[in-house]
Amino acid sequence: MSDSVERHEFGAEVGRLLDLVVHALYSDREIFLRELVANAADAMDRRRFEALTVPASALAPDAKVRIAPDKAARTLTVSDAGIGMTKEDLAQNLGTIARSGTRAFAQGLEGAKAEERPSLIGQFGVGFYAAFMVADRVTVTSRRAGAEEAWTWASDGQGSYTLEPAARSEPGTDIVLHLKADADEYLEPYRLDHLVRKWADFITVPIAIVQEGREEAANQGTALWRKPKSEVTPEQYEEFYRSVGMNFDKPWATLHWRAEGQLDFSALLFVPGMKPFQALENERQSKVRLHVRRMFITDEAELLPPWLRFVQGVVDTEDLPLNVSREMLQSTPALARIRRAVTGRVLSELASRAKDAEDYRAFWENFGPVLKEGIYEDHERRDEIAPLLRFRSSAVEGWTSLPDYVARMRDGQEAIYYLVADDSGALASSPQLEGFRARGLEVLLLSDHVDAFWPDALARFADKPLRSVTQGSLDLSKFPAETAPADLPAGIDALVAAFKTALGDDVSDVRTTDRLVESAVVLSAGTGPDLQMQRLLRRAGRGGGQAVLEINPRHPLIRALAEGPAEAVQAAAGTLLDLARIQDGDVPRDPVAFARTVTAALAADRRA
Question: Are residues 121 and 161 both part of a single domain?
Answer without folding.
Answer: yes
